[in-house]
Amino acid sequence: EAQRVAIKARSKSRNRSASKTRNHSVSRICAEDFEFGETLGEGSYSEVKRATHRGSGQQYAIKILDKGHLKRKQKLPVALAEKNTLVKLGAGHPGIVHLHWTFQDEWSLFFVLDLATNGEMQTCISRLGSLSTTCARYYAAQIVDAVEYMHSKDVIHRDLKPENLLLDDAFRIKLTDFGTGKLLEPSVDRAKSFVGTAQYVSPELLESGETSKSSDLWSLGCIIYQMIAGRFAFQGLSEYYTWQKIKQLDYSFPDGFDEEAKDIVQKLLVRDPSARLGVGAPGSVNDRQALRSHPFFATINWSTLWTDPAPPPE
Ligand code: ADE
């Protein structure tokens, strides 16, 4: 037994020194490989900068997280969870920001992400006031498709909102910010300690702190409403009053709101999470196909959704 332990220890130390050698001989990607440009966004523990990879000329968005800050606020596990979620989602879907590499230096963690050159959908809505029904339909379909992929990988976003929906160079959406995401694994349960952005948070999260895939569908309802109405579905004078309105399902549609859009929103903004459109088990009457087949999406060609040109922003 002693011999076995000794062999194990030797082989461990050999592995360590081998990987050390590897690190010195084969250069790993690092901050010096990029030329950093303007700041694209800022969060409480991070900022996102435009960056050009010197070797290839390829442009990326690099999320830089401050290690000292993360440690002090005990947010290292959150950063790690974000990385794990992005790794799990991989490059499997065009509507989700892809993590290309991660690296770190003494002070920061770096996440090299797809660059979405047309920024946040929130900016687009603010600039235009609201979106045409055609435009809103196109974006809603892309969100549905990206969210379904994410859910198929057992990831819940939990903070879906127009600030987290980026637009790429072709004005297609890229879902980002998985810092609040949850991997559906019994070992990682942060569900009860998290509340998302007030206006998009689901009643079940407010009432019992519980989230499921269905909470993302509630947020989808809020986003469709906002794109078309140009204002939040639920908005009180403070976060508290916003939450009251959500719990009471206290919202109304402005005049002229498209009837089919109204119907889909009404089927998503349902208090019972198990009754929302699209949450049913595959094959049931309320499954993901029911969401895709809703009359609001009648003109959407789901098989060319990511290659069709985006409708002009209006
Ligand atoms: N802001 C935050 N993340 C971004 C990204 N990946 N691309 C462009 N802008 C961003």
TrEMBL record:
Q: Which reaction does it catalyse?
A: L-seryl-[protein] + ATP = O-phospho-L-seryl-[protein] + ADP + H(+); L-threonyl-[protein] + ATP = O-phospho-L-threonyl-[protein] + ADP + H(+)
GO-annotated molecular function: ATP binding; protein serine/threonine kinase activity
Keyword check for Zinc-finger, yes or no. Answer: no
Q: Which GO terms describe its biological process?
A: intracellular signal transduction
Which UniProt keywords are given for this protein, alphabetically ordered? ATP-binding, Kinase, Nucleotide-binding, Serine/threonine-protein kinase, Transferase
The record lists the membrane-crossing segments as: none
- Keyword set includes Nucleotide-binding: yes
* Ranges where the Protein kinase domain occurs: 34-297
Q: Where does ATP bind?
A: 63
Per the UniProt entry, the Enzyme Commission number(s) are: 2.7.11.1
Record family assignment: Belongs to the protein kinase superfamily. AGC Ser/Thr protein kinase family. PDPK1 subfamily.
The protein here is known as non-specific serine/threonine protein kinase
Q: Which residues of the full protein are shown?
A: 95 to 408 of 597
